[in-house]
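User: what does the whole thing look like in 3D?
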Amino acid sequence: EVQVLESGGGLVQPGGSLRLSCAASGFTFSNYAMAWVRQAPGKGLEWVTGISASGNKPYYADSVKGRFTASRDNSKSTLYLQMNSLRAEDTAVYYCAKQRGNYGVLGFDYWGQGTLVTVSS
Amino acid sequence: QSVLTQPPSVSAASGQKVTISCSGSSSNIGNNHVSWYQQLPGTAPKLLIYDNNNRPSGIPDRFSGSKSGTSATLGITGLQTGDEAVYYCGTWDSSLSAWLFGGGTKLTVL
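Assistant: Here's the predicted 3D structure for the full assembly of 231 residues, as structure tokens:
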């Protein structure tokens, strides 16, 4: 059974940093692109970043470019999101999602339950 | 405002059919596959349709997808109260090198 499980969310002050992790199981992690998608309270889905199966050249939404860094460790079947210079508008549930192919152009077939990040003083 | 445009809400009676539209451009829907997601209240999104018109295993054939030019449509027949959810379309944008979601459509089953 495919599972993706996020961790690392919490309360952080504006300007602070947080690192999210996503542990995957039930599929060959190194064969698939992965992504982070967030959802602010009461709002729609917003793609944050996607990273190919090999881990090179992640893509980022303009809203997080230069502040967030996606990476993956295929030996540990784990996806990461390093979030720096956090702002109030980054407050959201962050979902980890498996993509259907090894690059980021195909849809998301499995989603985690999400981890809440709250940026507030 | 989302690059992919969806109606904010749709409604129909139980047992009836509804369609949800998703409008984009040549850099996204026009040249890439569209997928649709269902988000029930308080839960994570779930893949309903991939590659424009394909259903993952376990998704009933009451759900269908189509694409024409720069627009896509999700159809749901035999509406049930359990279908009440927010539905999102999504696709890759080749110009932006970014994945896009529509703003979401809230379905109400009367």
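In plain terms: Chain B has a mean pLDDT of 96. The first strand of chain B starts at residue 9 and ends at 12.
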